[in-house]
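1st attempt posting a full record on here, be nice pls
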Amino acid sequence: MDLDKIEKLNELKEKGIITEEEFQKGKAQALEDNKPTQSLDLGNMDSRSYSMIMHFSQFCCFVLPVLGWVVPLIMWLTKKDDDYIDQQGRVIFNWIISAFIYTIGCIILMVIVVGVFLLLALVVCSIIFTVMGAINAKDGVIRNYPMAIRFMAVNETPRTPVTK
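the predicted structure (as tokens):
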């Protein structure tokens, strides 16, 4: 809080230059100006939350297709020194590369129509697997997505049952 501003306002009030009402408004404004603004600070975020956002960043592909792999790549490379984030980045890119290969197969199979249905199934699976990956990342679990080809080695953690 800006104590100097409040003290100056108090002096003005005591001298009779401003009224009690003006003093209260000025004090409220001084206190309001110093409230911290909440923002998404990726630099100070814990590894689990950062990894969860990194998984969800794959959905940027719905804005511009190339962003679905560029944004997670940038996020991964900027924090690759953290082992947990590095493992989660490997999980994400195992899936991105696998999905790209599956997409090429679906496009080829579109010649016999079945590729259209397979491509729709791939989109649904991609959404589900991304959400599952984000939940796992937030829970501290490192697991490859189902159907992901293991291009990069991932040190998967075993699932532990939740006990209440």
